[in-house]
Amino acid sequence: MRRPFALQNIMSIALRRPFPPMEALSVDTIPEGPNWQYEPKWDGFRCLAFREGKRVELQSKSGQPLTRYFPEIVEALGALKAARFVLDGEIVVPRGRAFSFDDLLQRIHPAASRINRLARETPALLIVFDLLLDANGEVLTQALLPERRHRLDAFARKFLRGQKTIRLSPATARLSEAKKWLKQVGATLDGIVAKRRDLPYQSGNRHGMQKIKNFRSADCVVGGFRYNEGKPTVGSLLLGLYEESGLLNHVGFTSSLKSEDKKALTAKLKGLIAPPGFSGNKPGGPNRWSTRRSAEWQPLKPKLVVEVCYDHFSGGRFRHGTRLMRWRPDKAPRQCTMDQVEQKKANLMKLLT
């Protein structure tokens, strides 16, 4: 029998935009036990979809509007017979048997004509995995995950049959199935997520969901850059993470930049040069990794976010240089916090106790 939960019969103020979606804690191993549900982790933009009558709005993870960038998704949501709902999902752009994050990035463009052309040439999908407000106007954020998933499945059966632009993400409580999904990482998936079945929707925090990849990655603020030695183009990006106090600490660098991108990137970075760059620990501070060139850097406004892959984090920084995976215009700089990497250290310490 499903557990009872509190309902509201009107669109709650708590669900008005911007509404912080549930976030995921990055871990190294798949959590096990009866209180976990597993889902694929799709390689796209997190999106909350709001429908109220004829009005449809798309919101990014950072609370920014995505509506104008994906007209085909807005049209599909507006065509559903349900007159109101709030869905949590991921926007992806298919290319072959996988999803293309590069094609997805092309949508974040100021020209409506370009966006409309790309919507026709490389149409996006919305893969939904949670229901926060159902078609009857009932707010489900206080419901436990099994109840929300039950309602989502019923919503999909009633409103999404034959719908090609909006898809339902699979979910399972079977660990063996989750492990199969994880083997597909890098081919068709970005990883898997594990969600707590015994908690309500965890808006704006990482308590109810964990993400697992076959590599370690972190979203970082670009707090500064260094020029290539003897050249007028960028050589490396300086990475920062926010601590609880709100200070932005320098935690490392990435120099895996494509040569053909450096000229345009340098021009973009020059437009953002402004002190202090890092409000906490700065490049060139006293530590065993400092070099003479550590002090030769340009501070930037904290506007840009990148996802980097790394092998080890200790002493408040990445032990070695990181590999640039992709730019994340969908992520707010303030979401780039130390808990992304500190939790990994805590998990490793558990092995010693």
How many H/I helical runs? 7
The named CATH superfamily of the largest domain? DNA ligase/mRNA capping enzyme
Low-confidence stretches: 1-11, 285-294, 344-353
Which structural category do the helix and sheet elements fall into? alpha+beta
Tell me the helix content.
10-25%
Oligomer: single chain
Please give the radius of gyration in angstroms: 21 Å
Describe the structure.
This protein is of the alpha+beta class and 353 residues long. The chain folds into 2 domains: 13-27 and 42-171, 2-Layer Sandwich (D-amino Acid Aminotransferase, Chain A, domain 1), CATH 3.30.470.30; 216-350, Nucleic acid-binding proteins (OB fold (Dihydrolipoamide Acetyltransferase, E2P)), CATH 2.40.50.140. It contains 7 helices and 19 strands. It has helices spanning 71-79, 101-105, 112-121, 145-159, 175-183, 262-270, 339-350, and strands at 25-27, 36-41, 45-52, 55-60, 84-92, 94-95, 98-99, 125-133, 166-168, 191-196, 209-212, 216-227, 234-242, 248-254, 298-299, 305-310, 313-314, 317-318, 323-327. Strands 12, 13, 14, 15, 16 and 19 form a 6-stranded antiparallel beta sheet that branches. Strands 4-3-5-8-9 form a 5-stranded mixed beta sheet. A hairpin with a 2-residue loop joins strand 6 and strand 7 (98-99).
